[in-house]
Specification:
By secondary structure, the chain is mainly alpha-helical. It is built from 21 helices and nine strands. It has a five-stranded mixed β-sheet with strand order 6-5-7-9-8. The protein has a two-stranded antiparallel sheet with strand order 1-4. Strands 2-3 form a two-stranded antiparallel sheet. Helix 8 runs parallel beside helix 10 and helix 9 runs antiparallel to helix 10.
């Protein structure tokens, strides 16, 4: 069984490399570009973050002091990226995450299965269904996953001791603060994982001396408090009631705690009970995806087979997640009875608390195709935390564990063998065409665009007197990468009623004049009729000069 598992682990590794490499063909989803606009422009905007919703608050937002290290890190990592450059960065971060997970599994002291088998299992969990393509998306989930991994690896392999010099202790403290700054800046949902931030810091510095331990915990607690205050302010949208309602519908109303506790606990219970199933529902390979983030594929003849395999995948993940959570709780209880809580158990219960808080806070309509890119990797981390080197293991238990490991690796191999031939031909077709607009993917921007197609956008911009460097240009994804050097750019999706500009609607020209926009360069279909009548067209792209607003 060990030899068979080792061969399966090698097969998973080879296929994983192939699938992640194929991820370079995936068009950029609109959220990737929006997140890029926020995190890459810290230096360009003189030390402030770009606000995507100008109808809610000013275009530039001051940030908490504790976010500055993270903002500088993001600006260095992401600034100046092209479409291809952003996708490569996403693949690189995904590669870093999987490599660190692979190395940790290889050094894990468990004795249930071979090290290569454990490496194959944790890698397999991240290669199920469409998850490999989700993991390469340059979204906030990538930084959250890497952060969670760092919070678990450092207390296990890089704890500080009293014998460490002041420079080593200072380096560790600075690094954990930088990681926390990047983590909290990545997305408001990072706050749900505050327990693991504090548990990790406690474990790293508990033997370094009381002053260091208390100092680091206080600094991280300060960063968490600042982030919470900032999220409270940033989530308000008083002047845009429709947008405010959209934002409110995604999360549990915590004001119910003071007005209707029964309703609060009823909604919280519903959220947490349904969250796991709704996340897993987005994992399998299908022919059509939410928001068409991947191109639809013709293949009605394989639809029944995909549905059957998808059901097997979902049931397997559901059982795995529930058993894992139960095992984690059982380990904590057993160690508390022994009056000794090991680092893995403390980190595991902290991770579980974060996942439960995440499930409680988000309503059933908030689970999207990209959410498994956080939850499933977090479960693979939790698996490594729950496994205990001190468990007594008999030969028959090892045999069962080996069979279970082989099952997961076989499931991942089959999953990747399904994903690659179904999606890659269509993705290659889109890349070879090189068009700047992808039919059927209205929210996506192609990574590979022919030079003549690219040249049409600057040529159109000249006809409207628009230049790279103009302030407050309203841009779509394709235009942003060619005109990203002007101050305070505006993502067209967030002001047009095509997406999030429902409060502005047909008054968009007046709104843009009010904020002194430099003009519009966008795909025509994104613009309201009030602006289309004033636009200069070139194929499917439109521009409107500042004077014509």
């Amino acid at each position: 069984m060990t030899r068979l598992n080792n061969l399966a682990g090698f097969a998973v590794l080879v296929l994983a490399l192939s699938v992640c490499a194929a991820g370079i063909l995936i068009p950029l989803y609109s959220d990737e570009i929006a997140v890029q606009m926020v995190r890459a422009r810290f230096f360009l905007e003189d030390g402030a973050l770009l606000n995507l919703l100008p109808q809610c608050r000013p275009l530039l937002m001051p940030i908490p002091a504790s976010w500055y290290p993270g903002a500088v890190f993001n600006a260095i990592l992401y600034s100046g990226a092209s479409e291809l450059g952003l996708r490569i960065r996403g693949i690189a971060i995904c590669g870093a995450w999987l490599s660190l997970l692979w190395m940790w599994a290889g050094r894990h002291p468990q004795t249930l299965i071979s090290k290569r088998s454990l490496q194959g299992v944790v890698l397999s969990l991240n290669m199920l269904g469409v998850l490999p393509f989700v993991l390469v998306l340059a979204r906030s989930e990538q930084l959250l996953v890497v952060g969670l991994l760092a919070y678990c690896i450092f207390p296990i392999f890089w704890r500080s001791t009293e014998t460490d010099g002041i420079y080593i202790k200072g380096l560790k403290a600075a690094l954990i603060f930088l990681i926390t700054s990047v983590f909290l800046l990545a997305h408001p949902k990072a706050l749900f994982f505050s327990p693991i931030i504090l548990a990790s810091a406690f474990l790293i510095f508990r033997d370094a001396g009381k002053l260091w331990s208390v100092g680091v915990l206080l600094s991280l607690g300060f960063a968490i408090a600042q982030s919470f205050q900032h999220v409270q302010v940033a989530s308000r949208c008083v002047d845009a009631p429709a947008m405010s309602l959209v934002l409110a519908q995604h999360t549990l109303d915590f004001q119910l705690l003071s007005t209707d506790r029964a309703a609060f606990f009823r909604e919280a219970s519903r959220n947490v009970a349904s969250s796991l199933g709704l996340v897993i529902e987005r994992v399998p390979v299908t022919l059509v995806y939410q928001s068409n983030w991947l191109p639809s594929v013709d293949g009605k003849w394989i639809e029944p087979g995909l549905a059957g395999f998808g059901k097997l995948l979902k049931v397997s993940l559901h059982v795995f997640a529930l058993l894992l959570l139960c095992a984690g709780i059982l380990r904590v209880v057993m160690e508390l009875l022994r009056k000794r809580l090991e680092p893995g158990a403390l980190l595991g219960i902290s991770m579980t608390a974060g996942l439960v808080l995440h499930g409680v806070a988000y309503n059933v309509n908030a689970w999207h195709f990209y959410t498994p890119g956080l939850i499933v990797p977090a479960l693979s981390i939790l698996l490594l935390l729950v496994l205990d080197a001190q468990w007594p293991v008999s030969n028959w238990i090892r045999l069962v564990a080996g069979a279970v490991a082989f099952y997961w690796m076989l499931l991942a191999i089959a999953s990747m063998a399904v994903l690659l031939p179904i999606q890659t031909p269509r993705l290659l077709q889109i890349a070879r065409a090189g068009d700047d607009v992808i039919e059927g993917q209205s929210l996506s921007t192609p990574v590979f665009v022919r030079e003549d197609q690219h040249a049409q956008i600057p040529s159109l911009a000249k006809r409207c007197g628009i230049h790279d460097g103009d302030k407050r240009l309203v841009l779509d994804g394709a235009a942003y990468f060619l005109f990203q050097h002007g101050r305070q750019p505006i993502n067209v999706f967030y002001v047009s009623d095509y997406a999030f500009g429902m409060d502005i609607g047909q008054k968009l020209p007046e709104f843009l004049r009010k904020i002194d926009s430099g003009g519009i360069l966008s795909r025509c279909e994104y613009l309201p009729k009030a602006l289309l009548d004033r636009a200069i067209r070139s194929d499917k792209m439109c521009c409107i000069s500042k004077a014509d607003l």
